[in-house]
Amino acid sequence: MVKIGVLGLQGAVREHVRSIEACGAEAVVVKKVEQLADIDGLIIPGGESTTMRRLMDKYGFIEPLKQFASEGKPMFGTCAGLIILAKKIVGYDEPHLGLMDITVERNSFGRQRESFEASLAIKGVADDFIGVFIRAPHIVSVGPDVDVLATYEGRIVAARQGQFLGCSFHPELTDDHRMTQYFIHMVKETKE
Ligand code: GLN
Asked: Which of 6, 55, 83, 157 to mutate to test the pocket of ligand 1 (most atoms within 8 A of CB)?
């Protein structure tokens, strides 16, 4: 059985734990750097990327997470977590972890649409996945090694680059666990 960590500093942590457990895997809420040694893959949840970053600095997570990635361990960023993973953020000089070769724009679906749901076709996951978008970012552009998995109204909302998976929406907020299952499959493949 694989152990999936959920970065537990801020945001929709419990919902991811619930989704991982519904898929039959073990979930660990990661609040301390030492716990990274114990997990096979990590989900960085949605929430508020600036707040999460502040806590990541406070608890010394930046370098250990880069190290975790350099060991080839899978990482999945959802919404704010996607922003945390990105190499470039529109309007900012520096990224957070800067791991995934994508450029993201924050809060890019407009104020009048702070949150909404949309049915998405996600490559390798589902043709009819309900994506819950909450002040969501989108992926403006991707590097050559990045596979676009889903778009919505012409904007990229899910992508994968080898060990890295990211999406604009919150896959943990419904009872459809296929996106979580896809990540768990990535983790199992890597472990084997
Ligand atoms: N708008 C948030 C940010 O920029 C992301 C929102 C979310 O994770 N639901 O960090």
From this structure: 83
